[in-house]
Design brief:
The chain is built from 2 helices and no strands. The chain has 73 residues and is mainly alpha-helical.
């Protein structure tokens, strides 16, 4: 019975520091989850849709250059 009372009195004196330490350890995963949510929403944002035009034009230019280098040598 005496040990129980002594442990409770220690809890009262150490309670604030232990509570703050527990809060800090709980805030770390909370901040990580919020950061992951923000990053996920940013990564999944809708972007301006471009057609295949620029890629096809670049590929056509690449093919022309490759054909010129074959015929020139």
């Amino acid at each position: 019975m005496v040990n129980l009372l002594i442990s409770q009195s220690r809890t009262l004196t150490w309670g604030w520091e232990v509570g703050m330490a527990a809060l800090a350890w709980l805030l770390i995963p909370l901040m990580a989850a919020i950061g992951a949510g923000l990053w996920g929403s940013w990564a999944n944002r809708t972007r301006k849709v471009r057609g295949d035009g620029p890629e096809l034009i670049g590929y056509a230019r690449f093919c022309e250059v490759m054909e010129k280098s074959r015929t020139g040598s």
